[in-house]
Amino acid sequence: MTKDPLIGRLVDARYEIVDRVARGGMATIYRAHDRRLDRMVALKLMHPHLADSPDFVARFRREARAAARLSNPGVVAVYDQGSLDGIAYLVMELVEGPNLRDLIASGPLTVREALGLTAQILGPLGAAHRAGLVHRDVKPENVLLPADGSVAKVADFGLARAVTEVAQTTTGNVLGTVAYLAPELITTGSSAPCADVFSVGVILYELLTGVQPFEADTPIQIAFRNVHEDIPAPSLRVPDLPESVDELVAAMTRRDPHSRLDDADTALDRLRQIVSTLSEAELAVKRGGATGSVRTQEVLAANAEAARTAMLVTDGTESDADAAEAAADAATPGAGLRTVSLPIGSIAPDGAAGGRDGTTRALDRSRLSRGADTQNTQPVARHSARRPRRRAVIAAALLLAAVGSGGAWYFTAGPGRTVPVPQIVGMSAQDAQDAVEAAGLVWGAPTRAYSDTVPADSVISCSPGADTRLHPGQAVTPVISRGIEQKVVPDVVGSTQEDATSAIVDAGLTLGAVTKTYSDDVASGMVISCEPQSGSTVDHSSAVAIVVSLGRQPATVPDVTGMSVEDATTTLEAAGLTLGTQSEAYSDDVASGMIISSSPASGAEGYHHGDAVDVVVSKGPEKVNVPDVVGMSEREAVTALEDAGLDPQVSRVMGGLFDTVHSTDPSAGQSVEKGSQVTVNVI
């Protein structure tokens, strides 16, 4: 295999490329060492053929800046951007570990594992939706699972949009992506946060079943089915799946975007509500088949705590059935020991039912199993009618026992009376207090917390939650919003890039795009400016972009010899230089008014924009006046002419009998070029 020529290359005098991690349809990912901060990063280099599109390059960088604005532990952070040999690159957080596609390849997951991973995907998508961004390409390949067990991370925010605006997806790329596209993305190209919810719903289906909802030979056939068919209930493949999980998948993947869950935050709230109703047995349901590789089991085990946190589930949670049993014991003396008689047929089979004679009878489990199998063969069947939950049995028993014993008063007007906690989330604090007190409950001492989504002085949440039944006079404790937490942008102008980064992070903000440019006034490596400006008050989730100086821009001294002063001035200015001192000198080779030489000479290094270049301008050949040597002896005349820089040529008349100069040619006083011949006539 040919070695990648970029391995070992140093990018921007900072990022040393170590090896290649992956190659996709849009870019190649490299592992690189950030020498400046001494850390490993991921360097994503755009494919050269995409660099020919100015629109794509601009969108690539713009979308990278948008992704950098997201401050969420579940988003792969973008640290830097630049270009290498004219090709755009991004520097991102390096996530060591598999992606979700690797995990799915090992087989279906339990309900707990599938919902835990789904909750971790919805978290960062919710942050994106609140920031006005739609991912548009949510798929298992874009969900990374850190080997250290920290929260799963979603990658490539916004980049898919840049790709599709340059060219429609290619055959090699569509098959892995089209299964997750919302119908409206396929039919009209329009997108909203609910399109991302659809994609996550398909991923949840795949986590539960181990397969995609639709199979076909070509991408267009899958796209057609996405548009024209509802996502099937996962319980058709996982018979014991809780009905509420089926309903969650359906709510997330409705074909009509207006009927679908609005955004990731809404979907996450629905998921958490469902988790709170599931028993341990229901959370452990898993489709039969592969148990996954050892590596898969290690990843899931490491991720378990992050999943638990994302679902707001803690160990020791009391199941609904257990709660019902406890309520029965508290409401009716001896209820835990009493046998309640129920008419046959009043409750569907669940392993035990009341006989007509008032005794408790066991059901034929084999017959029940056969009945369930028969029901499963129906293509549209859902096991909600197959067997009621244990809590339904207990609730019905409690109700009949209470009515039969004359206990209705106990629950409607007596000590057992309860009222539901009103829905107050989103209300103003005053309206919420009025609603709680109107229900006969007590307004507990509020706590206050910042919120990115709930306006100031409105209710973020309450404990107990809405619809929980309490005895009159019990307290409902609210959490009131302080609004979006505000931070002050620190003064980083004039600081080094490292110090500026630390100051921004210490201020509770995130570092945004880092742009580098030349500056005549600011030393290399120092911050020229930031946006928002220092001293500004901004939302805590804001990113601060900085402009870092590369120092003075280097300049190459051009060759201006032989040019006129005017042409030399124009040439120097085009190179970022200025014309300096002009001196003059005679030249036998360079015409008058033309440049003889420059200082520094052409090609000299170490000079920068704005530096001056001195020139020597030719005065042409030097002139001398022919001296008057008439009457001198031949020797005297020759000496005088040579001293004047002329070339004497002697002509003797009649042999130069008198050794006296009679005349010269040119004659005395004429101006001639230095070195010219002068004929001396001697008689």
Radius of gyration: 43 Å
Global mean pLDDT: 80
Structural class label: alpha+beta
The third-level CATH topology of the largest domain is: Transferase(Phosphotransferase), domain 1
Report how far apart the termini are. 96 Å
Strand order of the largest sheet: 1-2-3-4-6-5
Q: Number of DSSP helices?
A: 20
β-strand amount: 15-25%
Regions with little confidence, pLDDT below 50 for 5+ residues: 159-176, 313-408
Structure summary, number of beta strands: 31
Proportion of helical residues: 25-40%
Corresponding CATH architecture of the largest domain = Orthogonal Bundle
CATH class of the largest domain: Mainly Alpha
Integer count of domains? 7
Largest sheet: 6 strands, antiparallel
State the fourth-level CATH superfamily of the largest domain: Transferase(Phosphotransferase) domain 1
- Sum up the overall morphology in one term: elongated
Biased composition (Basic and acidic residues): 358-367
InterPro entries: Kinase-like_dom_sf, PASTA_dom, Prot_kinase_dom, Ser/Thr_kinase_AS
Domain Protein kinase: 15-275
Keywords: ATP-binding, Kinase, Nucleotide-binding, Serine/threonine-protein kinase, Transferase
